[in-house]
From TrEMBL, chains A, C:
It holds the Pfam family MoaE. This is Molybdopterin synthase catalytic subunit. It comes from the Bacteria. One of its GO terms (molecular function) is molybdopterin synthase activity.
Automatic annotation (TrEMBL), chains B, D:
Keywords: Nucleotide-binding. Belongs to the MoaD family. This is Molybdopterin synthase sulfur carrier subunit. It comes from the Bacteria. The keyword Kinase does not apply.
Length: 147, 85, 147, 85
């Protein structure tokens, strides 16, 4: 059961997690990304390729579903204007045992960082803006799962 | 044949528009060829597309290498490396 | 910030997660273990060494806090009588970046399985009972983090 | 010296009690010695403690190997491998 939502609106991790728990598996692993307010950040805008995003995220989800035996997989990714403390992304995985749930959860967030068409622009308290640069660690994290 | 070009993030900002329709000559066969051809359209295009190492592309909503052919494509998106998640 | 609760009562992962998000990190990773209703299971009783449990779980948490740079770490483990669908355990980790959060979360649940004084007794619909045997995979999962 | 012995899970069920106080002789120096000594207390003890490979121990709330000394300990718990999480 793959559920993907790409949306402007906020979301509730507790509700998303409860849906995954209801699938009858022994474990649910989740990751929630939150906007950090470091360096005087006042706004984070997530731009995305609207027509492509769901397809790209679905391809990542399908890859996880093919690699691990999962009962359910939920990805929610926001776009638009966010402020520090806002949730950006939720990845949740339900599986019979914890191993596949934890591994698939880590894989999904690693690949969302590097294989989904989102771009982040930071605005700071002094009015300056900056496009977030990709991090070498993110490429390395994604690469460890193979092609 | 008309081709929709989409720009994102600082590529979009530097070019000053988020999309345009173009009709490249037959000699433009790959994503790399297209970037080279587009960069001649204006100084803004040239600036936005100058650093090929920092450019990525998607052909009809699928990520594509510079060597990917564009024959038959309807939409090509050009953008910096993604930073989602 | 380490929070440990060993309790009979149910808990709310959404509330626990919200507390971790409030610490200002970029990511929160969680794992929630749930009682599976397989094979006609009607009850799962978790026995524990009450005087020792919190100390043992604290030792596991301290190990994680020493190994990874974390902003917060929450462990809730239930004991007593549970039924299929009930949550057993929650592990949540907040960190500046996702890597430490995901790794520490996996470490904590692996070690809780093998280094905390809990024992599970299953009761089935036909009235038979059985003590859950340790799984070789659990020992292997714990061992990959080193001693 | 009086020593509290705690039993858990099927060790507890087989012995039929969850704790007892004992005063082993000085020759009982390690966890393994204690298990051997306790197993002579009754047929139920002997049965519960027969399979040493399936027994684990904690000395004063810290997991301990069979070779761990028990001198000065106040409480020793005996139980099967843990299955929490």
């Amino acid at each position: 059961m793959i559920a993907i939502q790409i949306q402007r609106e906020a979301f509730d991790p507790g509700a998303l997690q409860a849906d995954l728990e209801a699938l009858g598996g022994g474990g649910v692993a989740t990751f929630t990304g939150v906007v950090r307010g470091e360096g005087g950040l006042s706004e984070l805008v997530l731009e995305h390729h609207a027509a492509m995003t769901t397809k790209a995220v679905r391809a990542i989800a399908d890859r996880a579903a093919a690699r691990w035996t999962l009962l359910g997989l939920t990805i929610v990714h926001r776009h638009g204007s966010l402020v520090p403390g806002d949730r950006i992304v939720f990845v949740g995985v339900a599986a019979r045992h914890r191993g596949p749930a934890l591994e698939a959860c880590a894989f999904l967030i690693d690949w969302l960082k590097t294989h989904a068409p989102f771009w982040k622009r930071e605005t700071f308290a002094d009015g300056t803006t900056r496009w977030v640069e990709p991090r070498a660690e993110d490429d390395a994290a994604a690469a460890r799962w193979g092609g | 044949m008309a081709l929709d070009i989409l720009y994102f993030a600082w590529v979009r900002e530097t070019i000053g528009r988020d999309q345009e329709q173009v009709d490249p000559p037959a000699s433009v066969e790959t994503v790399a060829d297209l970037i080279e051809w587009l960069s001649q359209r204006s100084p803004a295009h040239a600036e936005a597309l100058a650093d090929r190492q920092r450019l990525r592309a998607a052909v009809d909503h699928t990520f594509a290498d510079p060597a990917a052919p564009i024959a038959g494509a309807r939409e090509i998106a050009l953008f910096p490396p993604v930073t989602g998640g």
